Amino acid sequence: MSTRLQKIAEFMKEELSLIFLHKINDPELGMLTITSVKVTPDAKNAKIYISIFDKVGRDVKIAKLNSIKGYIKGQLSTKMSHLRKMPDIDFYLDDTLDYVEKMENLFKKIHENDNKQND
Do residues 45 and 39 make contact, with C-beta atoms less than 8 angstroms apart? Predict the structure, then answer.
Protein backbone atom coordinates (compact mmCIF):
# COMPACT_ATOMS: atom_id res chain seq x y z
CA MET A 1 0.00 0.00 0.00
CA SER A 2 1.34 3.42 -0.91
CA THR A 3 2.07 6.10 1.65
CA ARG A 4 -0.85 8.17 0.37
CA LEU A 5 -3.29 5.28 0.84
CA GLN A 6 -1.91 4.57 4.30
CA LYS A 7 -2.44 8.20 5.28
CA ILE A 8 -5.99 8.13 3.94
CA ALA A 9 -6.73 4.90 5.83
CA GLU A 10 -5.28 6.22 9.11
CA PHE A 11 -7.16 9.51 8.80
CA MET A 12 -10.39 7.64 8.07
CA LYS A 13 -9.85 5.39 11.08
CA GLU A 14 -9.31 8.36 13.41
CA GLU A 15 -12.27 10.32 12.07
CA LEU A 16 -14.57 7.30 12.12
CA SER A 17 -13.66 6.74 15.76
CA LEU A 18 -14.69 10.32 16.54
CA ILE A 19 -17.92 9.95 14.55
CA PHE A 20 -18.84 6.79 16.48
CA LEU A 21 -17.96 8.46 19.75
CA HIS A 22 -19.76 11.78 19.25
CA LYS A 23 -22.33 11.48 16.45
CA ILE A 24 -23.76 7.96 16.65
CA ASN A 25 -25.50 7.46 19.95
CA ASP A 26 -27.04 4.05 19.39
CA PRO A 27 -26.94 1.80 22.46
CA GLU A 28 -27.83 -1.21 20.26
CA LEU A 29 -24.36 -1.07 18.71
CA GLY A 30 -22.69 -1.55 22.08
CA MET A 31 -18.92 -1.45 22.39
CA LEU A 32 -17.16 -1.50 19.06
CA THR A 33 -13.67 -0.74 17.89
CA ILE A 34 -12.37 0.11 14.45
CA THR A 35 -9.48 -2.28 14.04
CA SER A 36 -8.38 -1.36 10.53
CA VAL A 37 -9.30 0.47 7.36
CA LYS A 38 -8.22 -0.92 3.99
CA VAL A 39 -8.39 1.45 1.02
CA THR A 40 -8.28 0.04 -2.51
CA PRO A 41 -5.41 1.20 -4.77
CA ASP A 42 -7.74 3.47 -6.76
CA ALA A 43 -9.07 4.98 -3.46
CA LYS A 44 -12.67 4.37 -4.57
CA ASN A 45 -13.55 1.86 -1.84
CA ALA A 46 -12.67 1.41 1.80
CA LYS A 47 -13.25 -1.69 3.91
CA ILE A 48 -13.67 -0.86 7.55
CA TYR A 49 -13.09 -3.72 9.96
CA ILE A 50 -14.95 -3.53 13.25
CA SER A 51 -14.37 -5.57 16.39
CA ILE A 52 -17.49 -5.92 18.52
CA PHE A 53 -17.10 -6.83 22.18
CA ASP A 54 -20.51 -8.47 22.62
CA LYS A 55 -20.51 -11.80 20.80
CA VAL A 56 -24.30 -11.90 20.50
CA GLY A 57 -25.83 -10.26 17.44
CA ARG A 58 -22.63 -9.20 15.74
CA ASP A 59 -24.03 -9.74 12.24
CA VAL A 60 -27.04 -7.59 13.08
CA LYS A 61 -24.77 -4.80 14.31
CA ILE A 62 -22.63 -4.92 11.16
CA ALA A 63 -25.80 -4.86 9.06
CA LYS A 64 -27.00 -1.83 11.04
CA LEU A 65 -23.70 -0.05 10.42
CA ASN A 66 -23.97 -0.81 6.71
CA SER A 67 -27.54 0.52 6.70
CA ILE A 68 -26.42 3.90 8.07
CA LYS A 69 -23.21 4.08 6.05
CA GLY A 70 -24.66 6.94 3.97
CA TYR A 71 -24.90 9.08 7.09
CA ILE A 72 -21.45 7.99 8.24
CA LYS A 73 -19.96 8.68 4.82
CA GLY A 74 -21.55 12.15 4.83
CA GLN A 75 -20.06 12.93 8.23
CA LEU A 76 -16.70 11.59 7.11
CA SER A 77 -16.69 13.52 3.84
CA THR A 78 -16.91 16.83 5.68
CA LYS A 79 -13.63 15.96 7.41
CA MET A 80 -11.99 14.63 4.25
CA SER A 81 -12.78 17.48 1.88
CA HIS A 82 -9.18 17.41 0.60
CA LEU A 83 -10.01 14.27 -1.42
CA ARG A 84 -11.53 14.64 -4.88
CA LYS A 85 -13.91 11.76 -4.29
CA MET A 86 -14.82 10.20 -1.00
CA PRO A 87 -14.30 6.41 -1.03
CA ASP A 88 -17.37 4.21 -0.69
CA ILE A 89 -17.34 2.51 2.69
CA ASP A 90 -18.38 -0.96 3.79
CA PHE A 91 -18.23 -2.42 7.28
CA TYR A 92 -16.94 -5.91 8.01
CA LEU A 93 -16.62 -7.91 11.21
CA ASP A 94 -13.05 -8.37 12.37
CA ASP A 95 -12.98 -11.75 14.08
CA THR A 96 -9.23 -11.80 14.73
CA LEU A 97 -9.73 -11.63 18.50
CA ASP A 98 -12.08 -14.61 18.36
CA TYR A 99 -9.42 -16.56 16.50
CA VAL A 100 -6.79 -15.59 19.08
CA GLU A 101 -9.11 -16.64 21.91
CA LYS A 102 -9.76 -19.97 20.21
CA MET A 103 -6.02 -20.59 19.78
CA GLU A 104 -5.33 -19.68 23.42
CA ASN A 105 -7.98 -22.17 24.56
CA LEU A 106 -6.40 -24.87 22.39
CA PHE A 107 -2.98 -24.16 23.89
CA LYS A 108 -4.44 -24.30 27.40
CA LYS A 109 -5.99 -27.71 26.65
CA ILE A 110 -2.69 -28.99 25.28
CA HIS A 111 -0.88 -27.68 28.34
CA GLU A 112 -3.42 -29.30 30.66
CA ASN A 113 -3.03 -32.62 28.86
CA ASP A 114 0.77 -32.37 29.16
CA ASN A 115 0.48 -31.73 32.91
CA LYS A 116 -1.84 -34.74 33.33
CA GLN A 117 0.59 -36.99 31.49
CA ASN A 118 3.53 -35.79 33.57
CA ASP A 119 1.74 -36.53 36.85
Answer: yes
Tens of pLDDT, residue by residue over 48-103, are 999 988 888 889 999 999 999 999 999 999 999 888 899 999 999 998 777 777 88
Instruction: Residue 12: give the domain boundaries.
Output: 3-94
Q: Domain total for the chain?
A: 1
Does 104 map to a domain? no
Q: pTM of the full predicted structure?
A: 0.80
The CATH number assigned to the domain holding 71 equals: 3.30.300.20
For residue 78, what pLDDT is reported? 92
pLDDT confidence of residue 49: 96
**H-run or E-run covering 34:** strand 32-39
Residue 31 lies inside a defined structural domain of this protein: yes
**32, part of any domain:** yes
